[in-house]
Amino acid sequence: MNFASQILKPAFTIIRDKESKCLLVFIRGTRSIKDTLTDALCAPVSFNHNTVSGHAHRGMDAAASWIGERCIPVLRKALYQYPDFKIKIVGHSLGGGTAALLTYNLREIQQFSSTTCVTFGPAACMTLELAEFGKPFVTSIVNGSDIVPTMSASSVHDFIAEAVKKHVKKHKHSWLPKSKGENTHTLSDNLGEASGSSGTWFLPLSSEERLQIESINDDAEYISSNEGSDNIDDSDDDEEQLLNQTGNHEEDSVSQDTTLARRRLYPPGRILHMITSQMSENSNSNHNDADEKHVCLYQTPTQLYGKLRFSRGMIFDHRTKKYMNNLQQLIDKLEKSDSNIVED
Q: Which residues does UniProt assign to the signal peptide (predicted)?
């Protein structure tokens, strides 16, 4: 059986594999606008498990519940016919996060308590305690610079906040008001700098010219003070109100930051990271394979994926084809090493 995708309803199919004696539930990743809308519903919602509680990606939680309602009757019927079969949930990207949450739900049912899950490039979909709890039965494969496992409301919020902070810090000096003397010196300095850069020579400002500039500044300050003198009380009230509003916004911002940090989402379960590297020149490979790359697999801590990491390959490394190619290299490498052990 299979279902086409809709909003909060990703495409999935159920397959019976007699060779491996498994009932496989495959959940597709983002491929349509409807899938993208499911991704966009990323606010953390409460996710309660029999053993551990936390928060999960809202769209994927809803998708997992929808798929569960439709696949549970089918799986029960299949297990009745094939009682020695195991259930495995598999997904990529959006499908990976949904697959993990579905696995948590299924394992609460006695008949499906041995369900396991494998995800590829899963989206960040659950808080840290939930992610760590799933290590015995959820395996997540991450390829190279794939950015999706690090993307969540918290990580995007942190990135924007950091970018704004750096921008403000960089331009803070240019926003500060300058005194009369500073304005005079700055103007003369700028004229001198402009003369040097444009190729036209200007004479330095004389004492009389400096006095004229200071007089202009005095007049401007006098006009400004007179214009504002009639509304001093109103201005003070407005400033006080503005300061109060700013204080409230800062409190709300701090509260929001704390909530987001507490509900930061991570990829699920045990994480295995595929890294592609250049073959060593001292390796036993043939000269013709000097440019060949090989894939290594590392187990990495969950906390590593709580922050956005940008690189040139962050989108390309998320593609299904890239995952398949690197996984095939790993399989070939393992088969080759096994054959060498047998020969020895």
A: none
* DSSP three-state, residue 49: coil
91, 28 Cβ separation under 8 angstroms: yes
Least reliable range by pLDDT among 124-128, 147-151, 214-218, 311-315: 214-218
219 falls in which pLDDT band (50, 70, 90)? very low
Q: Which helix (H) or strand (E) holds 55?
A: strand 53-57
- For tokens 């004479």, what's the residue? 203
Six-digit token string for 226: 């007179």
Q: For 220-265, write each residue's pLDDT tens digit.
A: 444 344 444 444 445 455 545 534 554 454 445 455 556 666 789 9
DSSP string, 127-176: -HHHHHHTTTTEEEEEETT--GGG-SHHHHHHHHHHHHHHHHHHHHHHHS
Residue type, 76: R
Query: Which domains, ranges and CATH numbers included, belong to the chain?
Result: 2-152+265-343 (3.40.50.1820), 177-262 (no CATH)
Q: How many residues would you count in the chain?
A: 344
pLDDT digits (tens, 9 = 90+) for 15-51: 999 999 999 999 999 999 999 999 999 999 999 888 8
Q: Which residues, listed in sequence order, are joined to residue 277 by a DSSP beta bridge?
A: 294
Can you tell me the distance from the alpha carbon of 206 to that of 287, in angstroms, rounded to the nearest whole number? 75
- Cα distances from 49 to residues 103, 133, 260, in angstroms, run 11, 10, 21
E strand intervals along the chain: 2-3, 12-17, 22-27, 44-48, 53-57, 86-92, 116-120, 138-143, 270-278, 293-300
What SS3 class is residue 26? strand
Strand 138-143 versus strand 270-278 pairing type:
parallel
